[in-house]
Design brief:
- This protein is of the alpha/beta class.
- It has 4 domains: 2-210, Tetratricopeptide repeat domain (Serine Threonine Protein Phosphatase 5, Tetratricopeptide repeat, Alpha Horseshoe), CATH 1.25.40; 239-398 and 586-605, Rossmann fold (3-Layer(aba) Sandwich); 410-578, Glycogen Phosphorylase B (Rossmann fold, 3-Layer(aba) Sandwich), CATH 3.40.50.2000; 617-666, no CATH class.
- 50% of the residues lie in helices and 9% in strands.
- The protein has 30 helices and 13 strands.
- A 7-stranded parallel β-sheet has the order 3-2-1-4-5-6-7, with helices on one face. Strands 10-9-8-11-12-13 form a 6-stranded parallel β-sheet, with helices on both faces.
- Helix 1 packs parallel to helix 3, helix 8 (126-145) packs antiparallel against helix 9 (149-162) and helix 20 runs parallel beside helix 25.
- The longest helix is centred in the first third of the chain and has 20 residues, at 126-145.
């Protein structure tokens, strides 16, 4: 049938009798039938034979979308340039041409196209508002990619001024402020309220913003409801999975089976699975990659499928067809995660592990894997999933490649005899409270410096100025250039002590430091991200370096800085126990993981699959969004439950809360 449709449409195109509306209708029919090559052929034929049609610029625009989707960027660029030449006021063409230039790598040309849009929008009617916000948002994305964070933030601020309901823009705006250490992070203004920003913040940014696990759960729930949304349908039958009686089929979905922090953590996991017990399927949803870590994942999985180019429904159907019984989400709410794929429920059991440090707040993630330190039993009310535990939550790579190039303190600009505190966490993890703590430590240990992973020049200067304003010589704040991972690992040993950040602490950077024999001092709070590093340090055999109060953290850092000989036993212990401690015992982790998987499948077969608890999260979002977390460090509130209960009771006086509310019930 579709072949006849195409033949007829081609003939009508050549005889100039196919209207633009019929052309678009026909191409949509061909798309639905999967005939993408035919769509391009039809557009090309119509354009060739209808050069003088008054709407040819619109057809060229549509054709450019098809070419772009097929990866023919130069052809798409030419089609858009022709469309603009025919109708310079066609602003959507300028916006898309900017996107093409950005993808090609000509960012200056991209910005020029979006500037054209902004310059042409004088009347602020509906279409103009849409085009202007799109141009601002695209410009911000390109500027951020080029390292122009301040200009990018300015563009996003303007966009929110025009339309403060843009959740994605609010998320990006706040994430940019965090990355630049622009404190306070949440800064409402006349057109954009505190509530709009706090209900728009992404779950990942919230983890770095406040140690408030109840609010983080509510934010995750809201993100899932508003940004992931309701799928077009839900799979409720998995015949190949439920009838299978052989080895347990485990599917891992991940965008980071490659040279990436998460890729390094997972490097050994797939290969260590017991092939007599499980069958491993790896579903890769990341960018094209050919690095050694990527090739290792392909070699150590039983079945490898790249789903980057597959839409969610097609990928979900493939997972169902593969008979996957346990599907593990290794991304969660991170940039290239495929949460909409999981929303389709392509496997009977869905698990949240490792890539995202927190709860998903979704109705379809059944289990969350942690450990006894990260989520103590009395913290489970902050998680929608059923919590299961490993000996240590984080996997790691014992086959890290460390550069054998000898590097000295002088080589990297460190003073030879100073006490060197380091933190190689990303700048977005450095909260104002953490940084002020570090500056206090420097003030109490005069012969010391702080060695951080470098950000943009503007961010580095901002941190130096902040130190100077608090009477700390800015020359004591030093920045490490970004290096290939092997070289980066080698320079860890130049530091004396890794000072962790809070509320989002070290994860990969923490295990890297411990692997390289550098002790880590951490401050565990209440939230998942704030307790991971404590789990790592304890699993490495150094529980005395895990602090649970601000005062303890500062005093311990000062004590170790004033008498560096106290660090020697820690270094020696890390070196002696590296191959036997729980943190680096990957066979133990994988065997424990398999036991959890078998337990999950047993629960499913017995009809005991847990149901995510999402009760009253709208209330916790509304209440928690009113708190000014830039002004109050929730981590330091002694009775956190009572603090939340009081807020809920005040809310209850105006809007009664359901009796099954979490904190009301728990307290």
């Amino acid at each position: 049938m579709s072949t006849n449709i195409l033949s007829t449409a081609l003939i009508q195109s050549m005889t100039r009798s196919l209207s633009v509306s019929d052309l678009i209708h026909t191409t949509e029919t061909l798309k639905q039938n999967g005939q993408l090559d035919a769509v391009g052929n039809l557009y090309s034929t119509w354009i060739q034979h209808n050069q003088d049609h008054p709407l040819i610029y619109a057809v060229l625009f549509n054709y450019s979308v098809v070419q772009s989707d097929a990866g023919n960027l130069n052809a798409a660029r030419e089609s858009l340039e022709r469309a603009i030449a025919l109708n310079p006021e066609f602003l959507q063409a300028h916006i898309n041409l900017g996107r093409i230039h950005e993808r090609i790598g000509t960012v200056g040309s991209a910005l020029a196209q979006w500037s054209v849009v902004l310059s042409k929008l004088e009347a602020l009617n509906g279409p103009a508002l849409t085009h202007k916000t799109m141009a601002l948002n695209q410009s911000a994305r390109a500027l951020e990619a080029a390292g122009q964070d301040e200009l990018a933030e300015s563009m996003l601020r303007q966009s929110l001024e025009l339309d403060n309901r843009q959740r994605e823009v609010a998320q990006h705006f706040l994430a940019l402020r965090q990355r630049q250490c622009e404190w306070p992070i949440v800064t409402p203004w006349e057109r954009v309220s505190q509530e709009a920003l706090m209900t728009g913040i992404s779950p990942l940014s919230a983890a770095a913003y406040t140690d408030d696990p109840m609010l983080q759960l509510a934010i995750a729930w809201n993100y899932n409801k508003s940004d992931v949304g309701v799928p077009p349908f839900v799979i409720d039958s998995w015949p190949k999975a439920t009838s299978h009686t052989g080895k347990l089929r485990i599917g891992y979905v991940c965008s980071d089976f490659r040279e990436h922090a998460l890729g390094h953590l997972l490097a050994e996991v797939l290969g260590l699975h017991n092939r007599e017990q499980v069958e491993v399927y790896a579903y890769y949803c990341g960018p094209a990659a050919k690095d050694p870590i990527h090739e290792n994942f392909k070699a150590t999985s039983d079945h490898w499928l790249e789903i980057t180019g597959l839409d969610d429904i097609t990928a979900a159907r493939r997972i169902v067809e593969d008979g996957i019984q346990i599907l593990v989400d290794l991304n969660g709410y991170t940039r290239e995660g495929r949460t909409k794929l999981f929303a389709l429920r392509p496997a009977p059991v869905i698990v949240n592990w490792l890539g995202y440090p927190g709860t998903m707040g979704s109705p379809y993630h059944h289990y969350l894997i942690a450990d006894e330190w990260i989520i103590p039993p009395d913290h489970e009310i902050y998680y929608s999933e059923k919590v299961l535990r490993l000996p240590c939550y984080q996997s790691t790579n014992r086959k890290r490649i460390v550069s054998d190039r000898k590097v000295t303190r002088k080589d990297v600009g460190l003073p030879e005899n100073a006490m060197v505190y380091c933190c190689f966490n990303g700048a977005h993890k450095i909260s104002r409270f953490t940084y002020e703590r570090w500056l206090m430590i420097l003030s109490l240990v005069p012969d010391s410096v702080l060695w951080l992973l470098g950000g943009t020049d503007a961010t580095n200067e901002r941190l130096k100025k902040y130190a100077s304003d608090r009477n700390i010589d800015p020359s004591r704040i030093l920045f490490a250039d970004k290096l290939p991972n092997a070289d980066h690992l080698a320079r860890y040993q130049l530091a004396d002590l890794f000072l962790d950040s809070t509320p989002y602490g070290a994860h990969t950077t923490g295990s890297d430091s411990l692997w390289m024999g550098v002790p880590v001092l951490t401050l565990s709070g209440r939230s998942f991200a704030s307790r991971v590093c404590g789990s790592l340090v304890r699993a490495a055999g150094l529980p005395e370096l895990v602090c649970t109060s601000v005062q303890q953290y500062i005093e311990r850092a000062v004590e170790l800085g004033q008498d560096r000989s106290l660090l020697t036993p820690y270094r020696e212990k890390l070196k002696a126990k590296r191959d036997t401690c729980t943190l680096f015992n990957m066979p133990l982790l994988v065997s424990s993981l398999e036991k959890l998987y078998h337990g999950m499948w047993h629960d499913f077969k017995k009809g005991r699959l847990p149901k995510p608890d999402l009760a009253n999260l709208n209330v916790y979002l509304e209440v928690g969004a009113q708190v000014k977390h830039d002004e109050i460090e929730v981590q330091t509130i002694e009775d956190y439950r009572a603090w939340w209960q009081e807020k809920c009771l005040q809310y209850h006086k105006h809007r009664p809360i359901s009796p099954d509310a979490r904190l009301i019930r728990a307290c």
